[in-house]
Amino acid sequence: MTQGLLLISRPSFVSFFFLVVYMLQEQEAHAAEMERTFIAIKPDGVQRGLIAEIISRFERKGFKLVAIKIVIPSKDFAQRHYHDLKERPFFNGLCDFLSSGPVLAMVWEGEGVIKYGRKLIGATDPQKSEPGTIRGDLAVVVGRNIIHGSDGPETAKDEIKLWFKPEELVTYTNDAEKWIYGVN
Known about the structure:
Helix content: 40-55%
Catalytic activity: a ribonucleoside 5'-diphosphate + ATP = a ribonucleoside 5'-triphosphate + ADP; a 2'-deoxyribonucleoside 5'-diphosphate + ATP = a 2'-deoxyribonucleoside 5'-triphosphate + ADP
Number of strands: 4
Function: Major role in the synthesis of nucleoside triphosphates other than ATP. The ATP gamma phosphate is transferred to the NDP beta phosphate via a ping-pong mechanism, using a phosphorylated active-site intermediate. Shows the highest specificity towards GDP.
Main location: plastid
Protein name: Nucleoside diphosphate kinase
Family: Belongs to the NDK family.
């Protein structure tokens, strides 16, 4: 009998091997489901002092802030941001409003952050937003609806690229992730 050697029977080793493979696959699947979205608190939300409350709602949901800055966009920049609405009658007014004061630009990360971020925000028209949503609780009229959020993966990529340089996006592990997603 040899002291100090740990002998593992073949069936135990095989089970352990498959357990490790399964755990690695779960981590890969989890990483693949993580996404990023662009969220902006518009000038009305900034001027009304709603930054902390809005950030708090995203943090309490379990999303991770990976980029943030405050800017006053030019009208040209606002037009690039809202390029898809160029033919709409409210386009110029919307661009004037976005460029009228400070905007808090953010990138949030998490599983389903685009879809659930939109749910947190509520309908574009605050009158149609459910209570408990940011717009439902804090906004009154559609022209001053406090916040913008990407509406899909491609839009999110485009908006993040427009508002942030790659080096402004931070990648890090948040200790709360294991409690939110169940991944170690």
